[in-house]
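Work Package 4 report. The design task specified in the project plan requires that, given a folded chain encoded as structure tokens, an amino acid be chosen for each position. We show below one input record used in the internal validation round.
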């Protein structure tokens, strides 16, 4: 309790907790559909695109979110179109986008500002990276993501399990696939400041996989994933403060521990 009380006495940690919990909630809900559709690595690809966009923003001395959000949304659009048209497979398209964006970001950075502390924060995350303005923008965008997900829940459920049947019943599958990709892109950009480009995809993958070890129904998996994601993020913040380790790494470590624990419990129950 002393550690928790101390945590909330620092404004920058409070900002990180608020944004981190909102991002964890959004990413876990979207992650269930992405994992079930075997498209979970889109988070990794878009995070690298976001790093490239943040490098451009730093080079031009512009607001990071104002530059990265539209660029990553555009990348999500092209990534989805490439996969749907069969030009490049889903995993190959992600690899092309992620490696290219990361390379461009490093080149732009080395030619302008250089590899400084800010760029390292984008790569590995930092709770000091969130300004008050970033928090307000993140809250607004997180509410938009959650609102759109809730309103589109039935359609997202349908396209997750059977796109062909959904298309036959009149559901605009391409539109809702694009909506999921856009919402994922926004969530990735918001969370990358805290988790870093190399670790943000864990918020999409781990809670969904952990929840699937406990629940068998789609809605139950979503609720469980959301709860696990928020709890794991908060525990990661506490662990980071107590052990003086980076936040992103500690959050991933907690998520990994919960996943392994629930996997073991699930196997014991089946045995």
């Amino acid at each position: 309790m002393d550690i928790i009380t101390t945590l909330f006495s620092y404004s920058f940690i409070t900002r990180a907790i608020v944004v981190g919990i909102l991002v964890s909630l959004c990413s876990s809900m979207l992650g269930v559909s992405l994992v079930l559709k075997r498209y979970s690595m889109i988070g990794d690809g878009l995070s690298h695109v976001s790093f490239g966009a943040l490098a451009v923003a730093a080079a031009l001395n512009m607001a990071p979110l104002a530059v990265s959000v539209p660029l990553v949304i555009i990348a999500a659009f092209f990534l989805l179109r490439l996969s749907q048209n069969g030009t490049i497979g889903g995993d190959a398209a992600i690899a092309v986008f992620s490696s290219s964006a990361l390379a461009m970001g490093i080149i732009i950075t080395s030619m302008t500002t250089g590899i400084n502390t800010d760029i390292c924060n984008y790569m590995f995350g930092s709770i000091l990276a969130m300004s008050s303005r970033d928090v307000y923008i993140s809250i607004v965008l997180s509410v938009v993501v959650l609102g759109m997900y809730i309103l589109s829940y039935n359609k997202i459920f349908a396209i997750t399990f059977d796109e062909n049947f959904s298309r036959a019943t009149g559901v605009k599958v391409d539109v809702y696939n694009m909506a999921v990709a856009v919402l994922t892109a926004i969530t990735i950009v918001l969370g990358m400041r805290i988790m870093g480009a190399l670790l943000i995809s864990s918020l999409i993958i781990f809670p969904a996989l952990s929840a699937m070890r406990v629940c068998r129904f789609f809605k139950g998996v979503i609720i469980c994933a959301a709860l696990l994601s928020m709890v794991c993020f908060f525990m990661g913040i506490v662990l980071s403060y107590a052990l003086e380790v980076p936040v992103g790494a500690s959050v991933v470590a907690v998520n990994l521990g919960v996943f392994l624990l629930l996997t073991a419990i699930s196997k014991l129950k089946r045995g």
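The longest helix spans residues 11-36. Validation will be extended to a larger panel in the next phase.
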